[in-house]
Each structure stands twice: as C-alpha cells, then as structure tokens.
Amino acid sequence: IYDSVYMDIQTKSLNAIHSSTPRSIISKIYRCGTQLQPFQNIGRIAFGFNRFKERNGIFPSYFDQRKKDWFFLPYQITEDSLWIMSDILSLEYFAIAQDTIPPSIKEKNFKDNDQLPVSELKIQIKDEFSGIFKMEQIQVRANKQKQLFEYDPDLDIIIIPGWSLKKG
Q: Band of the pLDDT at 19, cuts 50, 70, 90?
C-alpha cells in the first residue's frame, strides 16, 4: 500500500449497496478498508468455500462504485476445497455471487441443419455476469466431435474454420 491505511472490515447488506442491476449475491458483503485503496502488488482475498451447499456457478465478485455494478473476479479453489480465493488490486466491496443464467449462444452466418459451403462458422457467445475470460472455458462440438476454434473476446465470437468440419 502506498500510504498508511486504517484497515477496517465491515459486513453490509445488499440493500446498502446501490447496484444498477440485481445480482445473485449469496454471501455477506464485505467492505474492506478505505474504498479504492490501490496496492503496489497483488493482494489476495479468501472466502470459506466449504460452507456453500450449492457450489455450481459461485465465484468471488467485487462492486465497482463508478459503474454501480458487481463484477466477476477470477479465482482458484484450494485442493482441499476449503477456500475460494481471488487476487485483488485494491480494497473494495467483495462478496460471493452465483451465476444462474447460462450464456447466450447464437449462430451468426448459418442456421440449424444448413448444408451450405462456408469457409468458417461464426457463433456469438455472451455471458453477462461471470463472463468468459479464458478460452479453456469454451468447448465446441459439431456432430459430437470436438472442434478447433478461435475465440475473439472483443467481439464475443467463436470462429470454427470450415476445413476442420466434415462435409454436410
């Protein structure tokens, strides 16, 4: 930290945080220290993972005060599944959220059951809350076969080269 800071951790209710969109916060909200206090190096925050009965789709999140919304934090789960941890760059509001809305997937240059000769297939994919932040989160299959693909995160588009698909 660049200056002396009084470290104070408080719990807040979801009603105390004025968010622009409702999110599925499933833990207490922790207000950590002076808001937006930047770090010189990465810090780490950890939540008890084993206390959540339903673990599908849960992740750490932080509240961006300027955008008035909650955002996904990339995380790791310890091998013993006791902790879910995220690297952080500043002190803010933190909570565990659960994403229950699946990503939207839409064909861009083809329709179901098309048999058109195309040089590539384009698929629009979007996940509004937790997002897609690495290619390892995506798996593409056509006719039950894994496919090679490219992912353009700026356009939220998956591109499957035509040469990797079987004819038909």
A: low
